[in-house]
Design a protein that fits this description.
heterodimer, A: Rossmann fold, Rossmann fold, 9-stranded mixed β-sheet, 8-stranded mixed β-sheet, B: alpha/beta, TIM Barrel, 8-stranded parallel barrel, 13 helices, 13 strands, about 15% strand
């Protein structure tokens, strides 16, 4: 009996790869991470491969490391695989040459993804795969989830026989993340395909001292060339071997594949050749167009390299007159992309074999970075082929108004497949919409005869992000490898989306519209924007509504409306009879939540029942009554770039931006997040001036810089809004006539409440209130905007007046990092903000790829900003692995510019005021006042230089700003600093150069979804440490201290904000490398982050996060450089650890392991304290 | 040879000493110690339904709450995990282990919140081998609209439901704040309890003046706190078909003698064991036996209830407020 399952491409591949390998070495990278994680989970659950053993799954420190481990395991005779994508694949290139050069069978499974060029992209195209064509790996694409499942096996079988390593790839996200109903391969098929004799041959070639041989020789001019040519026949034989395996596979499963599969009219004139998920859309379109009388066809490439010329020619219809070769990649400056080249070569080298006229051949690029590839575009390509002189080297799907490469297409053209039901759901990241829809499509896929497909789109923010779920199902296999264009069912799970977006534009005539709304049956219609009412009336939509949050509350579900909206979908879409649908939902709830306790199951059951009682149909009036227009995406004083580009991206219209409007070198303006008023917080903090003690702690911890304080004199109060609160400024620093205010940017707040928890002041009459309290945002919004606008018009306190080493005073400094897309309650961003306050106006930031590069640089808007003088952090992200080196490069360049400027100044000195020159050249510039004085001197110098004729003067003008000290910051997470970038980090620390390294240590790979790093604490559950991490974390600080010339600080803002601030100031002042390791709480830790700072305190008090500063400057002054900022552990580690799910879930899995982890953690806490006090004593003794 | 054997909740105890629910009765190691020092029975550390529910919700929430928000991180913690300790499985396993390793009766203790929860966990505890079940129901009726009869019915319903579904004897740890404790005791017995512990000793509330927050503090009692225990043991003795356990303020062998004489069948110890350790059991037993030897008592049964309300010549001491009693004695 056929076994159908509904799963995504990554799972489809992992299920096969885990069954037919013995060793799996990986490193997480989007969008391939899930394959490694699933494999790890299978092994953790002791699932065996077809050889009867449990594969060893090992997470490495980088893709370079993973490929090295794969190479080693293969050499030692294990069947070995890895999963990767994008830059990760590029890091594997050196080993890929070796693996192929040594004729080693293996399959690398790649969820293909764009490469970082002018910008990074996590989305899908073939740039990574085409970047390794030269390595000797065979390239085998699959076009769908089913094919990815099948080809994972076929590639392995062919590799074992041919000895050529395979790169099996499928489109990142479109296939890797698409949930699709597929027929699963059973173990018998796997066993039949994997020939034991070939496995034995592989093992016989293993390096073993029992039959010693030597590989990896160093070869010289006499033999290297010949040896390199010795493998040719293996590549020549490969296509036939692969076809044989495909045929065998067909005999076992009934699914026949060929090296080139032709689909379409037998007498087709126009042919598209391509590979990847786009082929599915082309196939669907070909059938449609041929039914309309066209004669078109498609050749799906199954083996991209080596290119099997004969097989290609055999697949090509003899009636072919024109061919469009589509590459999902870009090779700037080339005369065409790889598949186009291969095809041209194939046809021209074999033109004698052609028994028909040489067809026209054009090449085109499509779908970069998961750009949509739709039937409309395919239609346009076929139309182009009909032309006498079709455009070669075209692009499709964009508007190239610079080099005019793009083809125009009819955006209204869609394939109206009436048998296919199409539903879209608009949800909020945190409301469970995507999870519920994955569940729904699995129910439809597995519990009905329908074929089913689910695809999920996320936006660029980590907080308050909108998700769009695209669900299709129908009686035939679904080949629509693009987003739904017109839907039978539209669900809006957050009514606020309707205020900003014309969502119902997507609804088909007569479609069903489901809305989650807080309004009553009587109010709901009137609350809709005009455009929504228009669609509902004009398209005769059936309109249903529910107040899902009330139902959730009643069902004790908190703010999770997933089960409720899922129930609504089944109740009104008519996919299944209602009773049957409800039963299936409940079965699914039991399956999903059963392991998490009866209470959870009961709660969800109650939600289902309550939903049915509260769902209602809205009677649609005949006329439009609303005058409410859609809200604009950006607010404020926008320049033309913000209007034409940033606003359009924010409005989800980025696809329509023409090439000419975009920066060609990846340069973007800073400070644009201020225009994007996202209004995502249900509650925002409200300041109570009567209770406030003006400590500024709320300002300090705010992850999104939405809480700020200023001090101003009474003259500024003129014109203040009525409710603008203020109080006399505290402290000797401020005068009698100066006032203090704390304001909140209510539209930018994410509602995390960290500020409330950290506030030390309590209302004397009501101790449940503090000086800052959360209140519902909506009633406060309008007034809040007015208050914030007034606040921003007030000046910041003069930087020179403030003592930057005092927490309260430092928080009056303007943050030059604001309103990022980081998670609510983020533990990293307060540190970044602090750095920007202290040094932002002279800061260059090298940012490792990770969370901080995403919330710091993910389009459309940017949180790094300029001050009123136009100065601010200049920021860039190079790669994940090279960030320390990248930042060192900044240092070298800046030093070079500075030295040049100093040299020129010295040369010009006779012509200038010698006192001024002397002061500029001897300025220390360690403190704000000195920096400020130097700026003034340099400005004066600039004025003088402008009037000077000397060539040196003009040259100096070009670099004179480098006479003011620049502050180089190298920022990244623990994944970078402890693992992938550690080699470079170590080198930069050793260099002695003046750079400041900030490690935002969440003890886990936060950005890619919580894989363990070497910073992961003992006992913490993480991906690849599913049972809890047994080993102790690496002590990066100790390693750096060993150099003795590195400033090292381990800090925790929640535990000791004074020491944290001092560390930043001291690190920056230190003329050498500085390393700050900053405890950063994170959503991956599994608790309510409003208590993040409290948990930080506990981490320090328990001794698991020692805080200290090691300042070599003190040693040079004869003082002890080691300053401990914490005391002997005073609470048990459990008190800290068991406040977080990452630790306490172990107790629910394995009580004995949990005990052992606690024992190890207790030892670690004690040991660390001993280590650092001993170190301190050693330096004391050395001083004596 | 003095006979200390005592019948309690259908079991024959070698003596009337019981260790009540506390951290000392959490794990096999310390329970074994208590047995070695001579304890007659042990009430296991309480299983808190509320805590189990809370942990389930927390786990469910934090395993999923940030999922599917951002394309690179569709989840943060591995969630496809076979949890083996979600429904107090470790507690149940510990009961099984303890039952295999000790000879004394093990009384499970349950602190529940929902009617379904009492039954579910009551059954599980019975299945795990508990010899009896102690219920810890101290409901704090903060609502202004809830009257005393409604509160009393909550207790009684729980007991009736539970009695219907489990067969091991039920013991209720009664709180001292009912308007008519004797009547309530009667109702509890009618609802099916086989034992009453006098009394539940609620966690203390205090205020932290630095942090301006209310605090919970462990309620460590002393020998001075046994007054109400003795009073109600004396009042209830022999009036109901129920075993009585004296709980609050029993700290020494002499306290134990007083409690038995007032009418208690057994005495349970918490604070004194937490303060002095498991070995204190030996000392309490010795003190009691020495006294009994000196006074030539042959068994605890002989003294039980000998100074109860029914058997004393000074019932006023139990019946009257001490001030009025003092006045009356003055008049006499």
């Amino acid at each position: 009996m056929k076994n159908y399952q509904t799963l995504d491409g990554n799972e489809a591949v992992a299920r096969v790869a885990h069954k037919i390998n013995e060793v799996i070495a990986i490193y997480p990278i989007t969008p391939s991470s899930a394959m490694g994680e699933l494999s790890d989970m299978y092994s953790a659950k002791k699932q065996k491969n077809i050889f009867g053993t449990i594969p060893d799954v090992y997470e490495m420190q980088s893709e370079g490391g993973a490929s090295g481990a794969v190479h080693g395991a293969l050499q030692a005779g294990a069947l070995t695989t890895t999963f990767t994508a994008s830059q990760g694949l590029l890091l594997m290139i050196p080993n890929m040459y070796k693996i192929a050069g040594e004729l080693t069978p293996t399959v690398f499974h790649v969820a293909s993804r764009s490469l970082a060029a002018q910008g990074l992209s996590i989305f899908g195209d073939h740039q990574d795969v085409m970047g390794v064509r030269q390595t000797g790996f065979a390239l085998m694409p699959s076009n769908s989830v089913q094919e990815a499942h099948d080809f994972a096996l076929i590639a392995q079988a062919a590799s074992l026989q041919s000895r050529i390593p395979f790169l099996h790839f499928f489109d990142g996200f479109r296939t890797s993340h698409e949930v699709s109903k597929i027929e699963l391969l059973d173990d018998e098929v796997l066993k039949s395909m994997i020939d034991p004799q070939l496995v034995a041959f592989h093992k016989q070639r293993a390096l073993t001292p029992d039959k010693p041989v030597l590989r990896g020789t160093s070869q010289n001019p006499d033999v290297y060339f010949q040896a390199r040519e010795s493998v040719n026949r293996y590549y020549q034989e490969l296509p036939a071997i692969l076809q044989e395996k495909m045929d065998k596979f067909a005999s076992l499963t009934g699914r026949q594949y060929s090296l080139f599969d032709y689909v379409g009219a037998k007498d087709a004139n126009s042919i598209i050749v391509l590979m990847g998920s786009g082929a599915e859309a082309v196939e669907e379109s070909v059938h449609y167009l041929n039914a309309q009388g066209k004669k078109v066809g498609l050749i799906k490439v199954r083996l991209a390299l080596p290119f099997a010329h004969d097989a290609f020619l055999a697949a090509l219809p003899k009636t072919t007159k024109a061919i469009a070769v589509l590459d999902r990649t870009k090779e700037p400056g080339s005369s065409g992309e790889p598949l186009y080249h291969d095809l041209i070569t194939s046809l021209f080298e074999n033109k004698e074999k052609l028994d028909f006229a040489m067809p026209k051949i054009i090449g085109g690029r499509y779908g970069l970075s998961s750009k949509e590839f739709t039937p409309a575009m395919i239609h346009a390509i076929f139309d182009e082929l009909d032309k006498e002189s079709p455009k070669n080297h075209f692009t499709i799907g964009i508007n190239d108004d610079l080099t005019y490469s793009s083809l125009e297409y009819d955006q209204e053209f869609i394939l109206d497949n009436k048998e296919q039901f199409e539903a879209v759901f608009y949800g909020l990241g945190s409301d469970g919409t995507v999870g519920a829809n994955k569940n729904s499509i699995k129910i439809i896929g597995t519990q009905t005869d329908n074929y089913a497909q689910g695809y999920f789109v996320y936006d660029s923010k980590k907080s308050g992000s909108m998700t769009i779920s695209h669900l299709r199902f129908g009686p035939k296999p679904i080949q629509s490898s693009y987003l739904i264009q017109k839907a039978n069912f539209v669900a809006v799970h957050q009514a606020v989306f309707l205020e900003k977006l014309d969502i119902l534009e997507i609804a088909k005539e007569g479609a069903v519209f489901l809305l989650n709304t807080p309004y009553t049956k009587e109010e709901v219609w009137e609350r809709l924007p005009r455009v929504s009412q228009e669609h509902i009336i004009n398209k005769k939509l059936k309109f249903y509504a529910i107040d899902a949050y009330s139902v959730a509350k009643k069902s004790k579900m908190g703010s999770r409306i997933n089960t409720i909206m899922q129930t609504c979908f089944f109740a009104i879409s008519g996919i299944l009879p209602q009773d049957e649908a409800i039963k299936k939902i409940k079965d699914s709830i039991q399956k999903t939540y059963g392991a998490k306790g009866d209470q959870i199951v009961a709660m969800n059951f109650a939600a289902v029942d309550n939903t049915l009682e509260n769902l209602y149909e809205v009677e649609v009036p005949r006329t439009i009554s609303s005058t409410q227009e859609l809200r604009t995406a950006l607010k404020g004083d926008l320049d033309s770039f913000a209007k034409e580009v940033i606003a359009r991206i924010t409005e989800y219209k980025g696809d329509s931006i023409p090439v000419s409007a975009l920066p060609n070198d990846g340069t973007w303006p800073t400070g644009t997040s201020q225009y994007e008023k996202r209004n995502i917080a249900h509650e925002v903090p409200v300041w109570d001036s009567e209770v406030c003690i003006a400590c500024n702690k709320c300002v300090s911890v705010c992850p999104h810089s939405v809480i700020r304080s200023k001090v101003f004199d009474s003259s500024f109060l003129e014109g203040a809004p009525e409710n603008f609160q203020y109080r006399k400024a505290k402290g000797s620093l401020f005068g009698e006539d100066e006032f203090f205010n704390i304001s909140v940017a209510v539209e930018d707040c994410t509602g995390c409440a960290l500020c409330v928890e950290v506030c030390p002041a309590k209302n004397k009459s009501q101790t449940n209130l503090k000086a800052i309290n959360m209140q519902p945002q909506l009633p406060l919004r309008e007034e809040g905007i007015e208050l914030w606008n007034f606040f921003t018009s007030l000046p910041y306190v003069d930087r020179e007046r403030l003592d930057h080493t005092k927490v309260q005073e430092a928080q009056f400094l303007e943050p030059l990092f604001e309103f990022s897309g980081a998670c609510p309650g983020c533990g990293e961003t307060p540190y970044i903000k602090l750095a920007s306050q202290l040094f932002g106006d002279r800061m260059l930031v090298a940012n490792a790829t990770g969370c901080s590069s995403i919330y710091g640089g993910n389009l459309p808007t940017t949180p790094w900003k300029k001050n009123a003088q136009g100065r601010g952090p200049a920021w860039s992200n190079s790669l994940f692995e090279d960030n320390a080196e990248f930042g060192l490069g900044f240092r070298l360049a800046v030093d070079n510019h500075t030295n040049k400027a100093r040299d020129l100044l010295e040369r010009l000195s006779p012509h200038l005021d010698s006192t001024l020159v002397g002061k500029i050249l001897s300025a220390k510039q360690t403190e704000e006042k000195e920096i400020s004085a130097q700026r003034a001197r340099v400005e004066k110098l600039q004025t003088l230089l402008q009037d000077m004729k000397q060539r040196e003067a003009q040259e100096l003008l070009g670099c004179v700003e480098y006479l003011v000290k620049k502050s180089i910051w190298i920022i990244g997470g623990d994944g970078w600093a402890y693992d992938i970038g550690y080699g470079g980090l170590d080198h930069v620390l050793a260099s002695g150069k003046n750079v400041n390294i900030l490690v935002l240590d969440t003890q886990v790979y936060s950005n890619t979804g919580g894989q363990q790093s070497k910073a992961t604490m003992t006992g913490a559950v993480a991906k690849f440490a599913a049972g809890g991490k047994a080993a102790m974390p690496k002590d990066l600080a100790s390693m750096a201290i060993n150099y003795e010339h590195v400033y090292v600080a381990k800090v925790s803002l929640g535990a000791n904000d004074k020491a944290t601030l001092k560390a930043f100031v001291e690190a920056e002042a230190y003329d050498g490398p500085s390393l700050i390791i900053a405890y950063s709480h994170c959503v991956a830790h599994g608790y309510d982050l409003r208590y993040g700072m409290e948990q930080q305190q506990k981490a320090v008090k328990s001794g698991l996060w020692p805080i200290f500063r090691f300042n070599p400057t003190l040693a040079s002054d004869g003082k002890n450089p080691m300053i401990l900022d914490y005391k002997e552990p005073s609470i048990d580690v459990k008190e800290f650890m068991y406040g977080e799910t990452r630790f306490n879930m172990v107790e629910k899995m394995d009580k004995e392991a949990a005990k052992e982890y606690l024992t190890t953690a207790r030892y670690t806490a004690k040991n660390l304290y001993k280590r650092y006090t001993t170190l301190q004593n050693q330096f004391n003794e050395a001083g004596e | 040879m003095i006979d200390l054997t005592t019948q309690y909740l259908g079991h024959t105890l070698k003596n009337p000493l019981i260790a009540s629910a506390s951290p000392l009765t959490k794990e096999l190691g310390s329970i074994k110690k208590l047995e070695d020092y001579g304890i007659g029975a042990v009430v296991m550390h309480s299983l808190f339904e509320e805590q189990i529910n809370h942990e389930q919700h927390q786990l469910d929430h934090f395993l999923h709450n940030s999922n599917h928000s951002y394309a690179e991180a569709l989840d943060y913690l591995p969630s496809d995990i076979d949890f083996t300790n979600i429904e107090a499985d470790d507690y149940l396993e510990e009961i099984r282990r303890i039952k295999e390793s000790v000879d004394i009766p093990i009384i499970a203790s349950l602190n529940g919140v929902s009617s379904g929860g009492w039954i579910k966990y009551g059954r599980k505890l019975q299945e795990a081998g508990a010899d009896a079940l102690e219920l810890n129901i101290t409901y704090i009726p903060t609502s202004l609209s809830l009257d005393s009869s409604q509160v009393e019915e909550l207790y009684l319903k729980t007991l009736r439901d539970l009695k219907e579904h489990i067969s091991i004897p039920l013991n209720l740890k009664m709180n001292p704040y009912f308007s008519a404790p004797a009547h309530m005791a009667k109702k509890f017995v009618e609802a099916g309890v086989s034992g009453l512990t006098l009394f539940d000793n609620p966690v203390e509330v205090d205020i932290d003046l630095e942090k301006l927050i209310p605090l919970h503090k462990a309620n460590i009692t002393s020998s001075k706190d046994k007054s109400e225990t003795l009073r109600w043991c004396a009042i209830l003795y022999n009036k109901l078909e129920v075993d009585i356990c004296a709980n609050t303020g029993i700290h020494s062998g002499l306290d134990l003698l007083k409690a038995l004489m007032s009418g208690a069948d057994v005495c349970s110890f918490t604070s004194v064991l937490l303060q002095k350790g498991e070995q204190e059991i030996e000392h309490i037993l010795k003190q009691m036996l020495t006294w009994m030897e000196e006074k030539e008592y042959s068994s605890t049964d002989q003294m039980r209830g000998s100074i109860s309300l029914a058997h004393t010549s000074n019932p006023d001491v139990y019946e009257r407020n001490s001030y009025i009693g003092a006045l009356q004695s003055f008049q006499r």
